[in-house]
Structures are given as C-alpha cells and as structure tokens.
Design goal:
single chain, 7-stranded mixed β-sheet, 4-stranded antiparallel β-sheet, about 0% helix, globular
C-alpha cells in the first residue's frame, strides 16, 4: 500500500489550504481515511476522518473550518482547511484505517506534509 500526500505549505491566518492524498495497492473504498496532525513535543491529534460509508468526523478544534471528502473513483481523499489559525500549524498525515471505520485506527501512513500558518 502506498499513500501520496500533497498540498501543504505556508499560509497567513484566515487563509485556506487543501491537502490531498492518493492511495494505491488496496480497495480504497473499503477503508476509512484518517487525517492526523503532529506538532513536535505534543500529542498526535486526529483531525478528521471519513468512513467507507462516507460518514465524516472532525475534531472539535477544526469543526466548521475543515472539511474531509473522498473520491473512491480516484482512490483519493482531501482535507479542505479554511479559516486557518496559527495553532493549525503541524505536520499532517493521511492514513488509511484498518477497517471501514476510523475506530479501527490508522494502519497505513503517508509521509507528513507540513502546514504552517503565520499570524
């Protein structure tokens, strides 16, 4: 299984970024997608997830600002991030869960993509 993430960068507070993730080597539609983020020295945080049935979940910290989606025909998932805040700065990881639900936990990891939000 391979995951390729893209879309990170530097943006001013209040701006937007869209992260994308493309997978290969598995039946993409059968698995939940989980976006996590990590700041050095802090606990890893689940940002958003979308199950195989397309039910989505967002962390309270990003609810109303981030939107997760998936396109099974393209084996891809996206994380649209709006109204970004400096606290959103982190390395973001696209992962594929070990099952249809985010509750299965992440199994396959893409490389991290850095998001930096300047104040």
């Amino acid at each position: 299984v391979q995951l390729q993430a893209s879309g990170g960068g530097v943006v001013q507070a209040g701006g937007s970024l869209k992260l994308s993730c493309t997978a290969s080597g598995l039946t993409f539609s059968s698995y939940a997608i989980i976006w996590l983020r990590q700041v050095p020295g802090k606990q890893r945080e689940l940002v958003a997830s979308i199950n195989s049935d397309t039910s989505a979940h967002c962390a309270d910290s990003v609810k109303g600002r981030f939107t997760i989606s998936r396109d099974n025909a393209k084996n891809s998932a996206s994380l649209q991030m709006d109204s970004l805040k400096p606290d959103d700065s982190a390395s973001y990881f696209c992962t594929i869960a070990d099952g249809r639900s985010r509750l299965s936990g992440p199994r396959h990891w893409g490389h991290g993509t850095q998001v930096t939000v300047s104040s």
